[in-house]
Design brief:
This is BBS12 protein. One of its GO terms (molecular function) is ATP binding. InterPro entries: BBS12, Cpn60/GroEL/TCP-1, GroEL-like_apical_dom_sf, GROEL-like_equatorial_sf, TCP-1-like_intermed_sf. It holds the Pfam family Cpn60_TCP1. The structure is a single chain. The protein is built from 21 helices and 17 strands. By secondary structure, it is of the alpha+beta class. Among the domains are: 303 residues, Orthogonal Bundle (GROEL, domain 1), CATH 1.10.560; 142 residues, 3-Layer(bba) Sandwich (GroEL). It starts with a helix and ends in a 10-residue tail after the last helix. The N terminus and C terminus are likely disordered.
Length: 716
């Protein structure tokens, strides 16, 4: 058997080396302080700015089997979680190198597979003590001090254009069911002698949770100064508020639309932080410093939570969020708009002038609007053969015109004004519809169709020939989209328009940038922030961030490596098929566990270097070792890590705190997404390891190598 191992190690494990090389390209994408990469498209000579492992892998030429497996693994992680791909990519490379080092020390493949798998499972169980429930996180974040300077940006107005301004998060609303009618805070219609909202500076971060500390009784004349923020609220204590969406959930407060004053109040100390809008703070703690995406997400959370209270729906519904990317506008124009914002051609936009202030009849199509389209699963009639006898070009045109005419006649007969199509639309039919003042929009997401169907009672159809009066909806309105300055935008080739219906829950995050190569990056970052909050709410818990989980894994692995082998039973040694393997099992366990731990140590070191918290990986490793020693001396590594995290001293380099966003803001990680990234990374490495061994030694020898241990390496 040892000769067989030497035969394996004498040859190069090409698959593991390929994984290591591919993962090396993504080192700068790790951590909150990523370094973006430009990817050049040789066919178009255009470059794209990327900052995620998914876009990197999509841009690489993956011709090898190992590269294809890596691509499938990352795509699976992205499809399920939309986060954790960079961690997965890095650990694939780190653990591939670690496995190669084990092979160079003649460690059996069966020992590598068994010990690494059991070690990872043990770590996943150990780090559960670093999980915090969403309730506790919200309570901690809501009770923290307000930092108005944490995020600075230009404030644009909120008006009757349907924009939910991410900067102004405290405003009045006429009707909850009509979110497009919003009164800006500077034009308070209930003002009296004591109303001084435009004189009272309110932090953009004060909307969720911390706003409770600003609420005082109407007759309270005291001055309230928020600790650490420099915000004086004496002029706000006497305000008579009504219709405020952010005060409606604070304890037992009630606001009367008729009287315009408080029916009850809660002061800051007595308010239950769980009743605050802590999801905005949680979104910030999960955003990794993505300011634009975080502010947009906070606006979405505020709107959806208010709607949830009035309708009893889900408090955060990711299916009600869509994006629209506008190239050519500054990033300060990014905002959230109610309804569906999309881009159409100038020819289509010309139709909108006929639709002003009109309720349109809307048609939803779940498929393509083309002559050749057939739904999935369509079976052509049996025993039917079509014979084409070289028809003339004129006859071909006549056949196409016949289909176009019949489709157009159907739309006109039912007086359809607006058609939303999930797939593609025939260009000739599009032109004819424009000529007849029918707006057809293609490539509409299924969630958008569902949202319009619910509020307009429209039922999607697959073919126009299925259309009936009961399938049509009504009440839709179309207008040119207006930006923060209240003006309609004309971007030349494409024109943004907004489709709205009273009561529709759909929200569009309008993402803008003037750099074409950055557009994809802005959209990816926004969706990452959205899905991090989504998965945190689904898990109902989060991990402590800032490297706390990885540091505890390192400490736990070191403890396991120092323990002697604990057989599952007294006869465990006799169960080994080879005495040589049993005699050196303890040595293998220690070596393999240290190799497993090296992946997390490299992870922490690279993140610290990327964030400029360490001048080199050597300095970063020294800092990690220092914390590991202090954790071991403490006697309870988890208690030490938890205390350091709360104090903001976790993995501090010489230049700052690793776990903060520069303002002492604690960060958190998703639980399931992180652990699944670990498991997928290790599963891929072990799969390639065993595949390489089978290629090198043959299937029979590899089966012999893999038959020696799973239950023998029990060290828990």
């Amino acid at each position: 058997l040892p000769m067989a191992f030497r035969d394996v190690n004498a040859r190069r494990h090409i698959g593991l080396q390929q994984l290591s090389s591919l993962a090396l390209a993504g080192r700068t994408l790790l951590g909150p302080a990523k370094s973006c990469k430009f990817v050049m498209d040789e066919s178009t000579n255009q470059s794209t700015l990327i900052c995620s492992a998914v876009r990197l892998i999509e841009s690489l030429d993956l011709t090898s089997a190992a590269g294809q497996l890596l691509n499938e693994t990352i795509q699976t992680q992205n499809k399920e979680f939309k986060t954790g791909m960079s961690t997965l990519l890095f650990l694939v490379g780190a653990w591939s190198n670690a496995v190669v080092e084990c092979l160079q020390q003649n460690v059996p493949i069966s020992a590598i597979v068994s010990v690494m798998s059991e070690g990872l499972n043990s770590c996943c169980e150990r780090v559960q003590c670093l999980q915090m429930s969403i309730h506790d996180v919200n309570k901690e974040l809501c009770s923290s001090s307000v930092r108005p300077n944490a995020f600075k940006s230009k404030t644009c107005r909120t008006g009757d254009d349907g924009l939910l301004n991410p900067q102004i998060l405290l405003y009045f609303q006429k009707d909850i069911s009509a979110p497009e009618e919003v009164i800006p805070i500077n034009s308070c219609s209930h003002q009296d002698d004591d109303c001084h909202f435009n004189k009272c500076p309110v932090s953009p971060l004060t909307d969720f949770g911390s706003i409770a500390s600003l609420v005082k009784p109407v007759d309270d004349k005291s001055t309230s100064v928020i600790s650490g923020s420099g915000v004086t609220t004496s002029s706000c204590n006497k305000q008579k508020l009504s219709h405020s969406r952010y005060f409606s959930t604070l304890g037992k407060s009630h606001f009367s639309n008729q009287q315009g004053n408080f029916q009850g109040y809660v002061s800051g100390p007595s308010a239950d932080p769980c009743e605050c809008y802590g999801l905005g703070h949680l979104a910030m703690a999960l955003s990794r410093g993505n300011q634009t995406g975080m502010k947009l997400l906070q606006s979405i959370v505020a709107y959806q939570q208010e709607r949830a209270e009035s309708s009893g729906s889900s408090r955060f519904n990711i299916a009600e969020i869509v994006t629209c990317c506008l190239l050519g506008l500054p990033e300060s124009y990014s905002c959230v708009s109610s309804g569906f914002v999309t881009l159409i051609s100038p020819e289509q936009a010309a139709v909108i002038k006929y639709f002003e202030d009109k309720a349109l009849r809307i048609l939803l199509m779940d498929g393509d609007l083309t002559e050749q389209y057939r739904h999935l699963g369509f079976n052509r009639p049996c025993n039917v053969r079509t014979v084409l006898e070289h028809p003339s070009l004129q006859e071909g045109r006549a056949g196409g015109d016949s289909w176009l005419s019949s489709m157009l006649d159907i739309l006109i007969s039912f007086e359809v004004n607006l058609v939303l199509v999930k797939g593609n639309v025939c260009e000739n039919l599009m032109d004819r519809c424009i000529a007849n003042r029918i707006l057809v929009i293609d490539s509409v997401a299924r969630d958008v169709l569902r949202a319009f169907g619910e509020v307009t009672t429209a039922q999607p159809v697959t073919y126009l020939t299925q259309l009936s009066a009961s399938c049509l909806g009504s009440g839709a309105q179309v207008e040119l989209w207006k930006g923060c300055d209240g003006r309609a935008m004309d971007l030349g080739e494409l024109v943004p328009v907004r489709i709205k219906v009273r009561g529709i829950p759909l929200l569009t995050a309008v993402l803008t940038t003037t750099v074409a190569s950055k557009m994809q990056l802005v959209e990816d970052q926004f969706w990452t922030s959205v899905y991090r909050l989504h998965h945190a709410l689904n898990d109902e818990k989060v991990f402590l961030g800032g490297g706390a989980v990885e540091l505890l894994c390192l400490s736990h692995i070191q403890m396991l490596a120092e323990q002697p082998l604990q057989p599952a039973n007294k006869n465990a040694v006799k169960e080994f098929h080879n005495p040589w393997l049993a005699a050196t099992a303890t040595e293998y366990k220690s070596v393999v566990l240290q190799a497993l731990a090296s992946g997390w140590k490299q992870y922490l070191s690279v993140v610290m270097c990327n964030a400029a918290k360490a001048a080199s990986e050597l300095e970063a490793c020294t800092s990690v070792d220092h914390h590991l020693k202090k954790a071991a001396d403490c006697g309870s590594p988890s208690a030490y890590i938890l205390e350091e995290f709360r104090r903001g001293n976790l993995l501090r380099g010489d230049s700052g705190a690793f776990a903060d966003h520069g303002e002492g803001l604690k960060v958190y990680d998703n639980v399931t997404a992180k652990t699944e990234a670990w498991r997928r990374a290790l599963d891929l490495v072990l799969l390639v390891l065993q595949t390489d061994a089978e290629i090198i030694t043959g299937p029979q020898k590899n089966q012999l190598l893999n038959s020696h241990a799973s239950s023998e390496f029990m060290f828990l």
